[in-house]
Structures are given as C-alpha cells and as structure tokens.
Amino acid sequence: MPTTKVYNWKRSIAYDANSVEKVSSVEDIQRIVRDPGRYPSPVRVRGSHHSTTRCVVAEGGTVIDMLGMNRILAIDKAAKTITMEAGVLHIDAAKALEKEGLQFYVNCEIGNLTVGSGACGGTKDASYYADDQWEYGQVASYCIGMKAVQADGSILEVTEEGDPELMAALRSSYGMLGIIYEVTFRVKDLRAMAVEHEVLHVDDFAAKLNALITDNRSMMLYLFPFLDKVVVEYRYDRPGVEVESGSWQWAVRNYTWKSLWPFISKTLHYAVPIRRVRFAMIDGLNNLTGAVMRRLIRDRNSSPADQIIRYPEMAGYASYTFSIWAFPRADYAQSIKDYYAFCKEYDRLNHFRCDMLNVGYHIAQDRQSLFSYTRHGPALTLDPVATGLPGWEAFLIAYNQWCANHNGTPLFNQSGSLEPYQVQRAFGEEIRIFLGYRERMDPQDRFYTAFFKRLFEEGVERLEPRRAA
Ligand SMILES: Cc1cc2nc3c(=O)[nH]c(=O)nc-3n(C[C@H](O)[C@H](O)[C@H](O)COP(=O)(O)OP(=O)(O)OC[C@H]3O[C@@H](n4cnc5c(N)ncnc54)[C@H](O)[C@@H]3O)c2cc1C
C-alpha cells in the first residue's frame, strides 16, 4: 500500500500517512470521517504543522489538510467577534481585524498558526494587562464558539455560553474530540501598544520579579544563561494614542529573531569548529543584542499585529526550534536561577548548550482550557531555543527531567520528547476528565493517536502529586 511521507515544519518529525486529503468544505470532512475503509484511522488535521512534537503524527492514518479552508466568514464590530474557517492563518486574521479597528486579545508571534489549531491546542504569549486586569495568554481562551465534525460524521456546535465545560475540553482537544472546521473568537478594540526593553542581571531580576509584575505590563523574557542576564520586553497599552501600523522596530526585532540569529548561530557552527571560540563569539553577540534591544527597540504606538511573524512554509537553513515548560510564579525567582545553573552544568558535562538565546513569558492564571498550563495559578516559562544541531534531542530529555522536578507543566504540541509520567504528574485529574469526554465522543478511536494514548494512559502515576501553585 503506497503511503505519503509527511513532515513537520522543521522536518524534525516525519511519518507515513495513508493519504493527505485537501478539503474545502465541511462535506469533504464528513465524507472522510464516515468512511474508515477508504480513509483509515487516525484521522488528523494538518494545520501548518509548526508543532515541535509528535502530536501531529497520523501514522498509517488520514491527514486532513485544512489550509484550503481559509475564509474569514464574519467580523462583527458591534459584538466584537470574528468567525473563520479553521485553516485561516493567525497573521491574516490579525491583519483583517486591524483594518476594522479591532485586534485579537492574544497576538502570538507565530503568524502561521492556523486558527483551528489555536482554538484546540497549546499556545503561548505574555499576558497583556488592559482595562485594570490581566488578560489570558493563550489563544484558545478567547475562542467562544466552535463547529466540529464528530467521529460519526455528525456536526457538533458548541459555545462558551452554552456549555463551558465541553468548551474547556475542546480548547485542549488537539482534534481528539472532533475535526474543528469553524471557530469564533472574542476580539477587542485596536489600541496603540508601547514596547521597550530592560537588561538585568538574573539575580536582580529574581529579586525584583514581584515588583515587576505589580507594574502591570506584559513581560516576555529573553534569557542568557551563560551571561547571567535577562532582557525583559515590556508591552503596554497607550489609550488615546493613534496606532501606527508597520512599526520598523517590530520588523527589526522579528527579522533578527526569525532569520538573522539562526543564520549566524548555524554558520558559526560550521565556520568556527573550536567550541570555546565559537561560544565566546555567540556570547559577544548576545551582549550586543541586549544593548541594541534596550537602546533601539522601543516604540510608543505600534499595532499589536506588527509583532506577528509570517514564517516560510517549511523551515530553511536559518531556522530554530525550541521547547517550553511553565513554572509557578511563586517559585520562578528560584526556578530561573536553577535553570541557569542547570544549563551551565549540562554544558560542563555534555559539551552542549543552546546556540540561540532562550525565552520566557509571564502568563496569567487561566482555567479556560482543560490542559491550560496556568490552570492552577499564574506562571512564567523557561523555553530553550536552538538551531537544532546534534545534541539538542539529548538536551531536551535532561531538560524535561529537570522541569518535571521543578513542578513544571508542559504543552503537548510544544514540549518535545515528553514521558508519560511527566504529563500525568502535571495533569493527572485533567487527563481523567478529558478521557471521559474522549471515550464518550470517540468510542472507536477514530481520532486517537498512539502519541496521546501513551502520554495519557501508559503506566500509572506513582509520583508525588503536584504541589499547589
Ligand atoms: C518557528 C516557530 C515559532 C513558534 N512560535 C510560537 C509562538 O510564538 N507562540 C505559540 O504559541 N506557538 C509557537 N509555535 C508553536 C505553534 O504555534 C504550535 O505548535 C501550533 O499548534 C502550530 O499550529 P499549526 O496550525 O501549525 O498546527 P499543527 O502543528 O499542524 O497541528 C497541531 C495539533 O492540532 C491538531 N489540529 C490542528 N488544527 C486542527 C483542527 N482544525 N481540528 C482539529 N485538530 C486540529 C493537529 O492534528 C495537531 O495535533 C512556534 C512554532 C515554530 C516552529
């Protein structure tokens, strides 16, 4: 039987699907789901396949390519909602909203994220503070309506208002409760956004963390474990100031992050074989990056959509990969220092360190989705980033172990090489609830994959339950 080889964006994951089916209507999806003889299980959606984990894999199964269902169906300025087919890209939707004087609550950097994936999977962005409160930092949290094709081919329509519990499960379902073909998001009025950066020693950052948070500005972190530095990126509202879209500051920042840094790091790997010299150069460039960010990358009236990046369809030479776990805010001052020590110790023992700067995000508590990594309290993340050269996979395994031992919570689509015990310790109760929905809604395992089955069901968690945040 001929199969089709499918790759994720970075080509770090490959699998053999029975077929890849391009769809352009809900009827196409129903026809596929209803015919297991011709379209074997598991039936899985392919968005942009930017996920860095095997959550995308449909080995021997049927892949529904959603990118053809890319129409924006309605923008309701009065109700402040946008309704779209699931294959619309996050960046295209954000630009369409901007034209109408609206914006998403969460403008995550990855423009290629399909809105269907954003509605049912893990995402990250620093929580924003507006109108006297912290907003959620996860795209799915603002999805208020979904339409999906269920395992028997029938249509499921759910709204936040009508069934908040099912909605929370669907926001974390990664296609296991149905193929999502239409989504409605709550949006808000477009407002000018300021951005600026501060460079801190990690000890100063840790000592000031609580004060920084009470400043009520969004915080993304650029982490430099080998320089003991943190660059904090603050974003905040400028009510009453006119928005000027097309910020050159965001363009420089995005180009450096998307292309320039991965290009330099990878080229240095080949051009400068002596490790000590190579990383001395990388450290020098990291120092320069911090200084440039602090002095130059500041804007007073940018459009939130400007921070979103359109990546190429498949990764090229200059591309990076990453992982992520979230840590309780109350512990983070210590966690970040321990993480820097872990990176140094790992390098000493294994001669591997990330060749890109690392990042982190401050994210508010959020119970909108079942597998939200801030379900039990606000969190900050520690995300290693690298070009993915040899040694990265082994590093990830040690990093996962370290994170699990530090009360961390992973994301199924962005934390690579997870072990069942790590997932079960973070989400024991939530997995039990989710499996209840899954078994009722998909008794024949039409949408269930070996990846999720292993993480949810393999072994019984015998470790200490997670500490309350
Ligand atoms: C360079 C790079 C930068 C990134 N930056 C960020 C970032 O800033 N913030 C962030 O949050 N993430 C980021 N990511 C991660 C990425 O956003 C997530 O992995 C996201 O899930 C990818 O979306 P996708 O459309 O490519 O979905 P895919 O990777 O194709 O699919 C993800 C999962 O969702 C399922 N799925 C997708 N669509 C549907 C649907 N319509 N119905 C049912 N199931 C569906 C798939 O079957 C799969 O299990 C980045 C990734 C890369 C490679």
Topology:
Elements: E1 4-7, E2 14-17, E3 19-22, H1 26-33, E4 43-46, E5 62-65, E6 72-76, E7 81-85, H2 90-99, E8 102-104, H3 115-120, E9 129-130, E10 133-134, E11 143-149, E12 155-159, H4 164-170, E13 179-189, E14 193-201, H5 202-214, E15 218-224, E16 229-237, H6 248-271, H7 275-296, E17 299-302, E18 321-322, E19 325-328, H8 332-350, E20 358-363, E21 379-382, E22 385-386, H9 392-405, E23 409-410, H10 420-441, H11 450-457
Parallel strand pairs: 3-5, 4-5
Antiparallel strand pairs: 1-2, 6-7, 7-13, 8-13, 9-10, 11-12, 11-13, 14-16, 14-17, 15-16, 15-20, 18-22, 19-21, 19-23, 20-21
The structure holds flavin-adenine dinucleotide (FAD).
Flavin-adenine dinucleotide binds next to β4, α3 and β13.
CATH fold-level label of the largest domain? Vanillyl-alcohol Oxidase, Chain A, domain 3
Model regions low in confidence, pLDDT < 50 over at least 5 residues: 461-465
- Helical fraction equals 25-40%
Kindly name the structural category: alpha+beta
Structure notes:
There is one protein chain. With 469 residues, the chain is of the alpha+beta class. It folds into three domains: 4-66, Uridine Diphospho-n-acetylenolpyruvylglucosamine Reductase, domain 2, CATH 3.30.43; 68-189, Uridine Diphospho-n-acetylenolpyruvylglucosamine Reductase, domain 3, CATH 3.30.465; 193-420, 3-Layer(aba) Sandwich (Vanillyl-alcohol Oxidase, Chain A, domain 3), CATH 3.40.462. It has eleven helices and 23 strands. It has an eight-stranded antiparallel beta sheet. Strands 6, 7, 8, 11, 12 and 13 form a six-stranded antiparallel beta sheet that branches. It has a three-stranded parallel beta sheet with strand order 3-5-4, covered by helices on one side. The longest helix has 24 residues, at 248-271. The radius of gyration is 21 Å and the shape is globular. Bound molecules: flavin-adenine dinucleotide (FAD). Residues 9, 44-51, 55-56, 66, 86, 108-110, 113-114, 116-117, 120-121, 123-125, 174-175, 179-180, 311, 413-414 line the site of flavin-adenine dinucleotide.
